[in-house]
């Protein structure tokens, strides 16, 4: 048995300063990218109360947000938030450049519809249509749209939501979900029938459907429940006068997370990995069954590509019979695999940071299953082996293997058990000396890392995966348990299958998170 420990990867910030914790780097040195001097131009859409709550919250994060817990160790793992401009070196004006108010009366007309497809589609319409209209008609440029959703939207616009009987609004049911799916391939001669089928083409999930319907329109969104930023207002208190959501101890964490995501969605990189190897490209494959058809094998594939610059791009692959119900695994056909990697290499070559316009020297494909012969042949068809070393890596959470240490703390994050030249267990969660804690509730589980195709040094692969756990711009935390190549695989797949997409063009990762 060989046990080794990988030191914590460092992140690079302004002035080429490298530290372990992104909150330290932002507080001390500022983000890697300078950002626009005018700051973040925010657009806000929501109810009248939602817009007001956003203004109040944006005003609060102009200054420091402290944790109420006096415990020293808690403060280490939840450091104070210094204020938006202090952390990101650009302003976020509490007064948005554009405000769009959703009338509560309009919301009530869709929010309580009995049919979940009509309910969610109609509710998303209220937001998506007005954002798209503003993009077309307004002269002002919005960097990020804050979508403030009332908690009733969260409550009633998810796949398993049910409206109370006393509030249900019944509409004439002209179609069943089965009829609507059939109309995708066999359109009716009557346009009104085809229009009535439209809500059934989308997943009844407000978050995923809104993201999907705005893809390709240059409208990055930050979706926030009103109770998240105003949990102590009377509307969100229980009969005893206490908040229904216990968020007091999470105020600085939420300020960090939302602000960091907003800075990234506005076009700035908060940080990048300091020790990243030049000319290396990482691709995570994301699959999602497409339940809109009758074939249980039908699935959508997407590739999440992350460059050495820290940028992320998502490619939508073809929908096809990629799922095997018998084995419970997803595998691409040869042509589909070739197209996906060809598109990734083409995008890598066109990246502005790639001065030589050359293909990647190394391309790592991350997946949750071992690549089969057909799809691996397709991946190889897309590369020039003289210029690019292609490596396939399976990454999955191990459910059996555990390690324990004496004392009150779990094992260190970064510990690895190298089983052989191609297989290892890597603990990406565990005790972190910098914050003197383990941010978990059970014995840390390792990732099983298997270099299943191609050739690469196993320790290099492990070091890269450790670094990729720190590239999550959707949050501002010390590190995650999964590499970013796979962390958002399910979320990306959900958005790509939430409805019919108008474009297959590669889009920045910021539109999906």
Label the overall shape.
Answer: globular
Count of DSSP helices? Answer: 17
| Overall structural domain count | 2
Mean pLDDT across every amino acid position: 90
Largest sheet features: 10 strands, mixed
Based on secondary structure, the structural category is: alpha/beta
According to CATH, the fold-level topology of the largest domain is: Nucleotidyltransferase, domain 5
Would you identify the CATH H-level superfamily of the largest domain? Ribonuclease H-like superfamily/Ribonuclease H
User: What is the rounded Rg?
Assistant: 24 Å
Number of strands: 19
CATH architecture of the largest domain: 2-Layer Sandwich
- Give the DSSP E fraction (strand runs of 2 or more residues): 15-25%
Q: Level of helix content? A: 25-40%
| Physical arrangement of strands within the biggest beta sheet | 1-16-17-18-15-14-9-10-11-19
Termini gap? 40 Å
Unreliable stretches covering 5 or more consecutive residues: none
Layout of SSEs?
Elements: E1 2-5, E2 11-12, E3 18-19, H1 22-28, E4 42-46, H2 48-60, H3 72-77, H4 84-88, E5 98-101, H5 104-111, H6 116-137, E6 144-149, H7 151-156, H8 177-185, H9 191-197, H10 206-214, E7 221-225, H11 226-229, H12 251-265, E8 272-273, E9 280-289, E10 299-306, E11 312-320, E12 323-324, E13 329-330, H13 334-350, E14 362-367, H14 373-381, E15 389-397, E16 415-418, E17 423-426, E18 447-453, H15 458-468, H16 484-487, H17 489-496, E19 507-508
Parallel strand pairs: 4-5, 4-6, 6-7, 9-14, 14-15
Antiparallel strand pairs: 1-16, 2-3, 2-8, 9-10, 10-11, 11-19, 12-13, 15-18, 16-17, 17-18
Helix pairs in contact: 5-6, 6-10, 10-17, 13-14
């Amino acid at each position: 048995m060989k046990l080794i420990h990988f030191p914590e990867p460092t992140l690079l910030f302004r002035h080429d300063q490298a530290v372990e914790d992104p909150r330290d780097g932002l507080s001390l040195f500022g983000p890697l990218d300078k950002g626009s001097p005018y700051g973040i131009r925010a657009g806000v859409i929501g109810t009248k109360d939602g817009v007001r709550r956003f203004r109040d919250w944006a005003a609060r994060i102009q200054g420091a947000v402290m944790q109420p817990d006096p415990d020293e160790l808690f403060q280490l793992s939840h450091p104070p938030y210094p204020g938006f401009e202090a952390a990101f070196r650009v302003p976020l004006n509490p007064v948005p450049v554009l405000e769009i108010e959703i009338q509560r009366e309009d919301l009530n007309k869709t929010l309580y519809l009995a049919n979940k497809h009509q309910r969610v589609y109609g509710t998303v319409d209220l937001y998506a249509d007005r954002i798209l209209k503003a993009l077309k008609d307004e002269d002002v440029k919005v960097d990020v749209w804050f979508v403030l959703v009332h908690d009733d939207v969260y409550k009633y616009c998810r796949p398993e939501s049910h409206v109370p009987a006393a509030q249900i609004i019944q509409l004439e049911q002209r179609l069943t979900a089965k009829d609507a799916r059939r109309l995708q391939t066999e359109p009716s001669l009557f346009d009104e029938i085809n229009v009535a089928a439209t809500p059934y083409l989308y997943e009844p999930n407000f978050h995923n459907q809104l993201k999907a319907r705005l893809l390709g329109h240059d409208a990055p969104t930050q979706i926030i429940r009103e109770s998240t930023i105003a949990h102590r207002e009377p509307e969100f208190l229980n009969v005893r006068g206490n908040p229904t959501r216990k968020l007091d101890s999470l105020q600085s964490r939420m300020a960090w997370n939302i602000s960091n995501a907003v800075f990234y969605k506005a076009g700035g990189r908060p940080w990048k990995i300091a020790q990243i190897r030049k000319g290396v490209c990482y691709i995570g494959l994301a699959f999602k069954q497409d339940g809109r058809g009758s074939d249980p094998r039908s699935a959508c594939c997407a590739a999440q590509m992350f460059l050495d610059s820290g940028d992320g791009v998502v490619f939508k692959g073809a929908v096809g019979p990629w799922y095997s119900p018998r084995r419970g695994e997803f595998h691409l056909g040869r042509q589909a695999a070739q197209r996906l990697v060809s598109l990734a290499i083409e995008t890598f070559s066109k990246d502005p940071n790639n001065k030589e316009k050359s293909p990647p020297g190394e391309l790592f494909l991350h997946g949750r299953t071992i690549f089969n012969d057909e799809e691996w042949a397709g991946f190889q068809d897309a590369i020039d082996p003289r210029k690019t070393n292609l490596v396939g890596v399976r990454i999955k959470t191990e459910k059996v293997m555990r390690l324990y240490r004496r004392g009150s703390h779990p094992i260190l994050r970064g510990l690895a058990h190298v089983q052989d030249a191609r297989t290892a267990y890597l603990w990406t969660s565990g005790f972190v000396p910098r914050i003197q804690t383990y941010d978990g509730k059970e014995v840390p589980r390792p990732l099983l890392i298997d270099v299943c195709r191609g050739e690469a040094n196993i320790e290099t692969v492990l070091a890269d995966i450790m670094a990729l756990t720190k590239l999550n711009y959707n949050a501002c935390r010390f590190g995650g348990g999964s590499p970013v190549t796979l962390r958002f695989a399910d979320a990306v797949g959900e958005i790509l299958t939430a409805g019919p997409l108008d474009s297959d063009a590669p889009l920045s990762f910021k539109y999906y998170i």
